[in-house]
Every structure is written in C-alpha cells, then in structure tokens.
Design goal:
With 390 residues, the chain is α/β, with parallel strands linked by helices. The protein is built from 15 helices and 13 strands. The chain has helices at 25-36, 78-90, 99-103, 106-111, 134-142, 155-165, 219-232, 236-239, 251-260, 276-281, 297-304, 317-320, 335-346, 349-366, 369-385, and strands at residues 13-18, 43-48, 66-68, 94-98, 116-121, 149-152, 172-174, 205-210, 240-245, 267-271, 285-288, 309-312, 327-330. α11 packs across α14.
Length: 390
C-alpha cells in the first residue's frame, strides 16, 4: 500500500514524476537518491504516471508517498487534472521529471505554482536511439520555459542537450549515478549461489548480465556471443556458463535460441531477482550488450563488486569503463566482437583480476553514492535559491 499522503511542515518536498516504479536503472537511481538523502535536507515523494509494483518497497524511508495516476494508453487528458490536484495538495518545493515521458507534466507543475522545476535525462529508448527525432526535440525546445534546470546522468547526454536540443550550458548539470559500496562489494570466500545446484561446477567461467530483456538492451547479442564461444572454443560446454537476470519481451526468444543450440543447461535466465548483489558476487565477468545507454547502474554495481566489464561502446558506457584498465569496449550489435572480448578474459586470469580490482578502485574514487546524492542536492539547493549551477 502507498504511504498516506499528508502535508507537514519540515524540509522541502521534492516530487519525482516518473512513468512507473518498477525494476529499472532510472528507478534504481531514484530509490538510491531517496534512501540516502539526509532527512533534514529534503523529503521526497514519487508520482507514477502509470503504476508501481513491489520494487516500491526498496524505498526505506517511511515518509515517502508513492502515488499512481494510472494513465491510460494514448491521450489521457484527465491525468493533467489528477496531477495538478496532487501537486496542490502536497505543495512540493520542487517537481523533478525524468525523460521524455515526464517532460510535459512540468506544465501542470507550473500551473500549480511549484517554485522549482527540474527535468532529468537518463537515456534514450529504441524509438530514438540518436536523440535526433525532430518531433521529440521540438517538444523539448517548446518545454524550455517550464524548466529551471536540467540534469543529465552522463556527459554524452549533457552534450546532446546543449548541442542538439539547444539548452544553454548554464542550465545543464551533469550528475553521475552512484553505487552503494555497502551493498556491492567483491567476493570474499564462498557464498552459496542462487542458481540451481550443479549449474556451474567449480572451475567454470560464469559470464553474466543484469537488465531488462528488451531490444534496446541488446540481450540477444549476448546470447549469440555465448553460442559463438560454445562453437569455437574446445571444451566450452564444460568451461562456460551464462547468467542473464531480468525479464522482458526478449526472454522467451533468448531461451529459444539456447534450446535450438542444445544449450539450455548451460544458461540460467531466472527473470527478475531481488538479490542482485549476491548474484554479482557469483559472476566472473560482467557483460553489458546495450544498443543505447545513459549511465548504467549495473556497470557501476559490477565494478563495485570487483568484476571486469565487457560493454558496448554506446552512450555513457565509455565514461565508466576505462579501456584496457577496468574492462573492454566493443561495437554494439556485434556478437563476434563481444565473444572475442569475453574469450580474452577467459584465457587471461591475471587480466581478469587486474581489471576487476581497478574497477573497484575507480568506483570508490568517483562513483560512490554520496557523490551522486550531493550532486542532486546541490542542484535542488541552487534552484530554490534561484542560482545557476554548472
């Protein structure tokens, strides 16, 4: 059940407007921000344009309302009034929308008299991978008067906002996602894995990924790379295992590819799992096969766990993975190149360990969750004070 909405005196309220509160990178970053914000600085609330599921209970603070508006498919004019009524009741100091699906809802926020209005860009979807769609960018340009500040989660997205969309640089702040180093840490001794008994005997090399199984995440590219390795490496069926955690429309297609190759016993695709830190600690190598990406939480979580990373050279991935230092970058949609990068780690354990340790140090130095929270709170402070933050 959602927390009861009520207006209280106290720290300013930030209301986050998102499409839905379910498992996902954007949603994970939002939950981390809420859980790690000092309670004396800001209170939070979440407005889901559509719905939420049990992921909502990842929010640990008891004072956070989560309000679904149950937006209907297509044009739902009634949602503007429903949102306006919530805003007038809760009286937030800031409304923070995210991605294109939330941008237009800064209009009712303006009409409701919300003093601070922020829009975040977290990545692009399959319908506009390059961010060049004329209609969408026209909407972004038209919405500029309703936005006080923009936050981009990667330098790639910040550059796109200024150079393609035409937002002035002083209105765009770049804040990287952060990772909770108390939840994600390297393996230390034996920990019982979550996969079925006998799936990965001692000595096997476990390749893994975590994420929604949909086209933009490139899930089938990793399956194809794994099958390529099975066909080209001697004794691969006894040496290699694949773990793909997450659900989505491509999960059944991935399972079908594995069945056709008689490789279902060599892969574990459990759907969504709650204990991602434990899964990370049972992997040997993390792979992110995305076609497009903002800033990947799962790359940061893998690096925090001490795993080397093979990732596609898209979006913000090159800002996280240091080539030949913490991992390897490959072209998107190239199973052969991905397989070659994976095989290099399979054949060089020293490189595997070295890149994993370097990744952990990099996360500790640059991507701790405290840095992310401080970045967001600095923008919130400056918006309420009427200042500009670069």
């Amino acid at each position: 059940m959602p927390v009861e909405e009520k207006v209280e005196t106290g720290p300013p309220i930030v209301l986050h407007v998102i499409n839905h509160l379910i498992v996902g990178g954007l949603e994970n970053g939002l939950v981390n921000l809420i859980n790690h914000t000092p309670p004396e600085r800001y209170r939070h609330g979440v407005i889901c344009l559509t719905h939420y599921n049990d992921f909502r209970y990842r929010i640990r603070r008891a004072d956070v309302p989560v309000i679904p508006l149950y937006k209907r498919e297509g044009h739902d004019l009634g949602i503007y009034r429903r949102l306006w009524k919530v805003l007038r009741r809760l009286r937030p100091a800031i409304v923070h929308t995210r991605n294109l699906s939330g941008l237009e809802y800064l209009i009712p926020a303006t009409l409701a008299g919300v003093p601070g209005r922020i829009h975040g860009e977290h990545g692009r979807d399959i319908y506009d991978l390059g961010g060049s769609n004329f209609k969408y960018n026209l909407l972004r340009k038209a919405m500029q008067p309703f936005v006080h500040r923009y936050i981009a989660v990667s330098s790639d997205l910040a550059q796109w906002l200024t150079e393609t969309v035409g937002i002035s640089r002083e209105r765009v702040t770049q804040v990287y996602n952060g990772v909770d180093l108390n939840r994600f840490y390297p393996r230390n001794g034996y920990e019982p894995p979550l996969w079925p008994e006998g799936f990965a005997p001692l000595g096997t090399f476990v390749i893994g990924t975590v994420g929604r199984m949909q086209v933009v995440k490139g899930s089938l590219t990793l399956v194809q790379a794994f099958l390529h390795l099975l066909n080209t490496i001697p004794q691969a069926r006894s040496r290699l295992r694949l773990v793909m955690v997450g659900d989505g429309p491509l999960r059944q297609e991935a399972l079908q590819l594995l069945r056709e190759a008689s490789a279902t016993s060599l892969a574990w695709l459990p759907g969504e799992c709650a204990d991602i830190p434990r899964i990370m600690r049972t992997l040997d190598l993390f792979v992110l096969p995305s076609i497009a990406e903002g800033i990947s939480n799962t790359i940061l979580e893998a690096m925090a766990t001490g795993l080397p990373v093979v990732a596609t050279r898209v979006g913000g991935n090159p800002e996280l993975v240091e080539e030949a230092q913490t991992g390897t970058l490959v072209p998107s949609d190239s199973p052969a190149a991905m397989a070659e990068a994976i095989e290099a780690y399979l054949n060089d354990k020293a490189k595997l360990v070295r890149h994993g340790q370097s990744g952990r140090r990099r996360v500790q130095a640059q991507f701790a969750i405290e840095a992310m929270v401080n970045g967001y709170l600095s923008v919130y402070d400056s918006v309420l004070a009427g200042r500009s933050v670069a």
